[in-house]
Design a protein that fits this description.
By secondary structure, the chain is an alpha/beta fold. About 40% of the residues lie in helices and about 15% in strands. The chain has 15 helices and 15 strands. It has an eight-stranded mixed beta sheet with strand order 4-11-10-9-8-5-6-7. A three-stranded antiparallel beta sheet has the order 12-13-15. A two-stranded antiparallel sheet has the order 1-2.
């Protein structure tokens, strides 16, 4: 049965063509089924002979139907790869989408931000200003390295707040950590083949470098961050580190270790990839200066992002390349286009240039410090001496090490889920099949401050 929708703006023959094609692809019209004659379909739909004939001819030309002399048109036998796509996948996709959209009463995800944190009104105004000022930007791709004015603002910000010494020409605007690393890998491939990563540590570097056929060596982490002795005992010549706030354990690498790490890179002809993870969100004392500032002329690739304080949805990050890498970078990537919207870059430039970024940063530090302190108070109130807190004082999460608790991580998370509390497995950050038994990440960025105490109380009830 075919129905012509009068609200649809398509021509009549296009409507008939699309309905028959969709029924063939969905399996509602089986192979070798005879279609209604042109005369009968004309009468059924009250349309002209030419309308039906045109639709049938188009279906015939594309192979959806075939004809038999003096008999009419029949449905073609299509390859199973093309037939019934909607029936084959609809149930699976529906299940996946519903799973992703699940909400929790208490969500301790370690990388979520406060829902009310984004400066919507200011961003909208600046975005509209960019649209009205220069319509030409809508017809061009922009520099692959990123908008120059934005790079200048990032350079000034890094110099005054992180101690990074660089020029705007060394900065590349990227769309997140994996984008940054995907640019770095081809630059390093000619002289390097092995990457050392923190264990536990961020999982994205491991995936990106392995996808580019690098060997990945896990290096254990101690209270001073990356274990330098273990690093020196490997054949790796590239290392990925988070020295200012190690992810996920939160340790800070002392300056003596930083200098030793720089010396290691110089001695082996190696490269340090410094991810300044959560560097802006330090709640006690002054921010820890970047490792790059200790040896600006060294082989140190510095990576930062706006995701942890502004918005992960914008997909805007940046990296600082050593001067000696610039020729190779331009040779490999000058024909590429930027992966970040030029309008978003221009808006972010205005946001920084007009002082909104600094004010927003101060506001976010205040908000997240209150949540951080509230979480610590709740943990101490409900767990007392039954936990040790790791990584406090910075970032958007802490790690709880449970005392006198033999439950495996899977059981801890399962029991929390039964209380409608969401946790992300710490084992996801481990490379050596280390389940980090009785340790869990507890994020506080996205949860309402008034719900933190009750959420922690439910965790205590679930585990003890």
């Amino acid at each position: 049965m075919f129905i012509l929708d009068s609200k649809n703006g398509q021509t009549l023959h296009a409507k008939i063509y699309n309905q028959i094609k969709n029924q063939i692809l969905s399996g509602n019209l089986q192979p070798h089924t005879k279609l209604p004659s042109i005369r009968n379909l004309c009468a059924e739909l009250s349309v002209s002979h030419n309308t039906i004939e045109y639709a049938y001819q188009q279906l015939f030309a594309e192979g959806y139907i075939y004809s038999k002399p003096k008999s009419g048109y029949y449905v073609s036998l299509l390859d199973s790869e093309f037939a019934q796509p909607s029936r084959k996948h609809s149930g699976i996709l529906s299940g996946q989408n519903s799973q992703k959209q699940r909400t929790y009463a208490y969500d301790f995800h370690p990388a979520c931000l406060s829902p009310e944190s984004f400066p919507t009104q200011v961003w909208r105004k600046l975005f509209m200003d960019c649209l009205q000022e220069d319509a030409k930007q809508l017809t061009s791709y922009g520099s692959q390295q990123g908008d120059f004015a934005l790079r200048c603002e990032i350079q000034r910000y890094l110099a005054r707040s992180r101690g990074v010494a660089c020029e705007a020409e060394q900065i590349v605007v990227c769309s997140g950590l994996q984008d940054s690393l995907s640019i770095i890998v081809p630059i390093l491939r000619e002289n390097h083949s092995m990457l050392a990563v923190e264990d536990p540590g961020h999982f994205i570097p491991k995936s990106v470098f392995q996808n580019h056929l690098f060997s990945v060596t896990p290096i254990p982490v101690n209270s001073d961050g990356l274990d330098l002795i273990a690093l020196q005992n490997t054949a790796s010549t590239v290392v990925y580190v988070t020295p200012s706030h190690q992810f996920p354990l939160g340790h800070i690498m002392p300056v003596a270790n930083r200098l030793n790490l720089i010396d290691w890179a110089q001695n082996v002809g190696g490269v340090i990839i410094e991810d300044d993870y959560d560097s802006e969100l330090r709640y006690h004392g002054s921010p820890i200066p970047a490792l790059q500032g200790l040896r600006p002329q060294g082989n140190i690739v510095y990576i930062g992002t706006f995701s942890k304080v502004l918005s992960p949805a914008l997909r805007v990050s940046y990296m600082v390349l050593p001067q000696r890498f610039l020729d190779t970078y331009h040779k490999l990537f000058d024909d590429y286009s930027t992966t970040v919207s030029l309008l978003e870059q221009r808006t972010l430039y205005k946001f920084m240039n007009q002082g909104y970024w600094d004010r927003h940063l101060r506001k976010m530090r205040t908000i997240y410090k209150k949540k951080h302190d509230t979480l610590l108070q709740a943990v101490n109130r409900h767990f007392g001496a039954q936990v040790t807190i790791l990584g406090q004082g910075a970032g958007l999460h802490v790690v709880l090490k449970l005392v006198n608790n033999s439950l495996a991580e899977e059981e801890l998370i399962s029991r929390a889920l039964a209380k409608d509390v969401r946790l992300i497995p710490l084992s996801k950050t481990c490379l050596c099949n280390n389940s980090r038994q009785s340790q869990v990440m507890l994020g506080f960025g996205g949860i309402n401050i008034n719900e933190i105490d009750r959420g922690v109380e439910l965790l205590y009830q679930a585990w003890y």
